[in-house]
Amino acid sequence: MGHDHHRHEHDKGLRTKLHWLLQIRNFWQSDVNREVFAMAAPAAGEHAVDVGAGMGPATVLAARRGARVTAVEPSRFMRTILSVRRPFQRARSRITVADGVAESLPVPDGSVDVLWTVNAVHHWVDLEAAFDELARVLAPGGRIVLMDEDFTHPDHPKHATHHDHEQETTIVDVVAIEAALRARGLEAAGEKTEAAGVPVKLIRATRPAG
Ligand SMILES: C[S@@+](CC[C@H](N)C(=O)[O-])C[C@H]1O[C@@H](n2cnc3c(N)ncnc32)[C@H](O)[C@@H]1O
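A: This is the predicted complex of the input protein with S-adenosylmethionine.
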């Protein structure tokens, strides 16, 4: 029984990997990631953190710009892909691929100038712990951009196939997230808006320079 169970789990893993590989076009680079990169505006010499970096579409842009990027990613499969991608980057020395989750970020207190996350908040399992971590790592004057595509919005091109995703994942409530970040001493604003031509949920925050 255990054997069948393990084989089933293994197959499920393979299916997931196949799913990601078939989607590689969307995860290697994406307009939504380009938009978040523009909003976060990582500058040369800054320490940037890409939470749930996936295949690193925003990580590579930030490193090219001259930021030192910690790409935090819990999936070994995704880290492998990003680690294979990294050596081909001229800015490879500025990219660190790190095992971790939003709820436990592998970076020191107050060390981060800019942090973003794209289409990953709905995967976070403990939002309160994740917000504690964001507040812990952000340096004075540091900024945060959290963006999740809003598949529940009827105008989203993937609405028909993806609209029920939220039933299986963490709900991204921009008002609640804004309040949670304010409660941790950050200035924050959450809104439902549009980015790269699709409906998104967006929360931007900063730690006052003090
Ligand atoms: C839809 S992908 C987005 C990847 C990338 N940000 C992009 O836009 O292409 C979501 C990512 O979140 C990661 N993830 C899952 N749980 C997470 C957690 N608790 N903290 C941070 N990232 C997580 C997944 O492994 C996956 O790579």
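The chain has one domain: 29-206. The radius of gyration is 17 Å.
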